[in-house]
Queue: 2 jobs
Job 1
Amino acid sequence: MPDHVIRSLALVAALGTIAHADKDPDGEIKLSLPTESDRVAWLRPGFRLGLGIMYGEMVGLRGVRNGRELAVNMHAGLRLDADWSLIASFKYGRVSAANGITGFIYSGTLDPTWHVTHSFSLAAGMGFGGIVSGRTNAADVEPLGANLQSGYTFSSSNPAMPFCDGNGLIGVLRAEYSWVLGPRSSTHVELEVVGQYISCQDPTGVTEPDTATPIVRTQYWPMTGGTLSWGLTWR
Amino acid sequence: MALRLAIAIVVVAASVAHAQAPSGSDAGSAAGSAAGSDNAGSGSAAPAGFVPPKALTSTDVPYPSTAPAITEPLAVTVKLRIDPTGAVTKVDLVTPPQPIFDDAVIAAAQQFKFDPGTYDGKPVAVAITFTHTFLPAPPTTPPTNAGSADTGPPRTSVLRGKLVELGTRDPVTNASIVVEIAGQTYNAESDSTGHFRIELPPGDATVNVYAPAHDHFVQRETLAAKQEVAVTYLVARDRYDPYEIVVVSDQPRREEVSRVTLRGPEIQEVPGTFGDPFRVVQSLPGVASIVSLLPYPVVRGASPSSTAYEIDGTPVPMLFHLLAGPSVIHPDFIDSIQFYPGGAPAPYGGYTAGIIDGTTARADTKPMADVDLSLLEVGGLVREPIPQLDATVTAAARYGFPGLLLSLATNQVSLSYWDYQLRVDGGTKTNGWTLFAFGARDELDTVSSTADPNAANPPLSPALILEFHRLDLRYHQTLGDWETTYRLIFGYDHTYSDDVDFDVLSVKPVIHSRYKASKTLDFGFGADGSARKVAQDAGADAAANPIAALTAQLTSSYSAGVYAEALWRPTPSWLIRPGVRGDVYSDNTATKQSFDPRLTVRYKLADRDLPEIAPGTDDSAIWLKSSIGIYHQPPRFVLPEPGFDEMPLKYGLSQSIQTSLGAEIPFRYNISLSAEGYYNYMDPTVFDLSTNEATAGTSANSSLLPTTIVTGDNGEAQFVQRLTTPELGRAYGVELLLRRQAKSGLYGWISYSLSRSEREMDGQWVPYDYDRTHLLNLVAGYPLPRNWDLGMRAQYESGLPATTTAGYNAGRLDGYVRIDIRVDKRAIYRKWLLDFYVDITNVAVQPEEIEPGFSLRYVLPTIGLRGRI
């Protein structure tokens, strides 16, 4: 972006600020003092939004390869009372490993959350999750896609296909510790354990000419893993 | 692979690029224009020239004698409808039930008298929110010292000042100021300017402020004897809702059969639209898509080039930036979206399918500035009145640099764009002028053809440049019962692609006039024209490039159109709108004429007695509605680009005959249902977007263009022949729209379309390439306390037809489901507002099969920030 464009926009914004400043002749300007403590405010029912980053390991089971994940997550939900919340959690990120899976991962779960103390909570959730364009450097497995005239489903995940694109069920257990930063924001760290079962599809790019149905190979991948995350929450 | 490449760019670029500012204008401030008196009464933006109502009587509510004592302040919020005389005609409870207190507030509110809200000096009906906070009994036994009869210590100090709303700087009126000193309380009330003054004894004071619709405020002051302390307290509102004040027309009129009007949060807070008003249309009935991300709608089964994107009734050559980019007009310029899936009235010409018209409003005279910032674009908007000119200037600009993010994924492609708008509004709404200049430029760079194929960082060169500029000069005049708008629009369009340069200079004069002959009869007249000079780069090689071959002969074109219509209400139950339009198109290849008669009829079947709607209005009635009309358009390229839109007239005009029949039924809780059936006959349609294989193959067509343009020995001729051969088409279906409009609380709609679009092929009707049988959309938004807003959109579209061994388009791809969510938060600071939002498009990463054997899976998480002064 040209510097002069940036400068012009900044100038425009600054001029707007100056133009609307006033002297407040009625006296010193004051905001309200807190009407309740921050900790009490965070116990009140209401909406919460959390954003964070997470790092962890996906562990493939029954022949499925592993991967290291780096993702962003979002928690959006309601604090129901001092003890319980109902949170929807979403995660989007990348999984990669030299000899493992590389691709885009995602999940979404609904997590009832129990606030054991003011700062510590436990959650268990279920939802969806999957991989987009997951690849490994493993050798392809029979039957090869090029030889198929119709769709094929593997009976086992071992040996695993070198490609996975699909979604499935995911379960999450989460422990969180949070610190209140102020009436509007808090920060937290989370430890999460996940288990997922993905219906992987490997499309051949070819369709059955009679039905236009895509010819794909399907394999079910069981995976587990754990992540550590840090984030901010607003109320 | 062109399509796959494009989609990959879309996914990567859009993931961050569209952190466009969400909704918004100052809380409770005037913004936008009056809700149209000629529509469904759906207005939800405070308009320019709008002055809110002021209370003439006390708005205090006595503590109910039968109520139990409370220990904390208890707030009751109601929605008041205030008629043009200032009387409260309706009170609706907003907060959860608290029976005794609710009854007290409702009873008191019904007796309030207001100086009515006005729009440009004329009283209008207005809906406002009113909150009364009941306070707990004073904590001390001594009597309250509110008057001059004072038994406490001598009051030798004074606390005076002003209550100002945090963020908006508006005065906080009729607030209770309760001061506690040494166990005694003293009361005062702020006046109509927010000022207060209270005499107090010296000492340490705790000042509490309780104001309707505002948060509890607490501050401590130390008062010395004979000291006067001046303060300005910034009091936060309990909710900053830019759409809270709703101007509601007394007698909203319905004039068209199929128009849907969207306003306020409906156009700026719908998930999956990046806050872009024009994208919201893709959630309405009858609107399918070629690919869910791309802003090319298939309206009632017509090719995308048959649907107009317009600003104030004038088509714009490019409404969106490339791929999944935002629209080229800052959302704050758009007051409402008028969407006609069919049956558009006579003033609209030149298109044979839908009309999507973004209407702008005269600028509010309140100064403001805002800045948008994201990882991939920066922009801002400034509005400032100029008293010397009796005018208001609004300027906006944006620069997008998604190439930065793209560079993380690939060094083969880069993209950048910018747009600007400058608007000056002078005079008044009835006799005023407007200068509106706007334009945009997009540049997509790919690896240069001369680059070393083995280079690690190959040089990039422009592969596609789209650019346009418009200067729209308007003058609006009111003489008695005549209202006339004169416009002169100058344009420059430029498209560069594959070594082909198109430059088009244009001028377009427009006159619209409306004459109110009586209370039951209006006449509308108008004329418009255009002159276009086309310059095609001399280097274009028509023999080698099929696109150049299409337009090689085109050097200039002209058009002229006139229309006349009447809006006749012979009885309160009938509304008849006949109209006729005639156009002449001419270029150096041919001259064509068209004649388009159109008729819309509405019949009020019955009035419903609904507590939320004023009786006797169009909104409270059950309507039957029907339309029939003929529509023509010059040949237009399959996907419009600046300058590269109108094709040579030798290919002939497209024509459609549109008919529809439906009903509208209002229900309680501001819910309405519209059901409409339609039948459109296209005779002929040319330049239909068509991509499917003619016969079944085993490999996918990976291009948006027909296979013949990609392969084949005689690709150019086949391509031109396929696009330019006139076809017969027909589309029919049923559309349902169940909608709750955004006055308070939950808003949104459920839309469903059951439709079929076909083209005749070898004497048989076969599905159109972009026919989708079922279209289902659920859009919902809900405001929460503490300035949170939640939104959700769920969409299902049937799969596209596909060619199989059974014949052309005999099969179908899989349908797709997409769920989008959005969270908005508004933070209020001393003098400015900060909007923040998270918008996730396709949250579940559901696949969309866009061609046989190839599915697209994407998710677009976006974060946006916007500061506003």
Job 2
Amino acid sequence: MSAVIAPVREEHIPAVQEDLARADLYALIARLLYSPDRQLLRAIAAAGEIGAETADAPLARAWRALAAAAEACDAETVNEEYENLFIGVGRPEVMLFGSYYLAGFMMEKPLALLRDDLAQMGLARSESVREPEDHLAALCDVMRHLILADENRDTAGLEQQKRFFTRHIQTWYQPFCDAVLESKSANFYKHVARLIRVFFRIETESFEML
Amino acid sequence: MAETKGKLSRRNFLLAVGAGGAGAAATMLAKSVPQAETKGELGDDAKGAGYHVSEHIRNYYRTTEV
């Protein structure tokens, strides 16, 4: 395992605070959508406020609500909710894969387009992994990677992030969030969905400023 | 000039809405987990050393102690 992962070298970390914060938020969302655990919930519950211009900023509110939910829920309950929502027996209640929202089925053309784009960026899925690349956690992790790997911090790097986000996340995150918010099985993950919705709206708006 | 202006307003926007200040909360979570090999790998070996998204996530999220 340690052969695949290693600490990011110092020079890869963007100097700009807001981009590092974005990378961290992507990492956190990916982790919540892949496999939540007790330590993660504790850390969220214990984390401080998000420093926005006003305490009433939507991201700050969504974060506060998630932290309160993390404090109130035990890990077993959250794990069970995760399994019921996203894994299920047979068909999951809520799909985590973009192709489902974009084409109506898993493993459809949008996944092929995503694979082409990943290949162009030199990224690929390990052969030993079963989940398709359009899992929202994987897409968030690609965004995190693009932010952290952008050493030049120029417009081209941001344009690459924008292109990936616009093509592969912006196109379907809203119906995904709606599905979680409408689910009767969801409780903790409704807070996660609200955080995702607010953060991705901010991303959309900020990319439009480029 | 326009590019700099665009960057500045984007930065101000991110800071104002809290996406730039999220570090206080989210950084501690992300910092304590292993990160992926990134750019150095990409050009070295297109087949073997590419960024293995899902494999990375599997390791990333299953071996983590926050």
